[in-house]
Amino acid sequence: MDWLGSAYLWIKAFHIMAVIAWMAGLFYLPRLYVYHVEQVSGGSETDALFQTMEERLLRIIMNPAMIAAWVLGLLLVLTPGVVQWWAAWPWAKLAAILGMTWFHMWLALRRRDFVAGRNTLTGRQFRMMNEVPTLLMVVIVISVVIKF
Known about the structure:
Elements: H1 2-39, H2 45-78, H3 89-116, H4 123-129, H5 132-146
């Protein structure tokens, strides 16, 4: 594990970049769903365009960014001396990361609903769910910076 210590700053830098990309998608995809529900008729050309945008955002940006964030984050956790397991902050961060991952999967399931033409959620409901990653981000950042 000596290599983790010497690569720590590089791993951390790439982890931050992966998290930024993941968060961008977690903020944008629910917003696309809001516009999809409120502005688009099912089966139209615009519906197909939205489905393409949503699918590419999820598959090309969000999924790889989430995987990279997880892998790099696990490498950071394995770096000796980085995490104080006796403190509350790593557990709070872990809970928020699991929540963020659940939200990612929830968004992927909602995309499948759009593809199958069975979405039942409203723009207002998607707007409300769009606040979830913000709240989780607050927990994560405070946990890591304050280290309570």
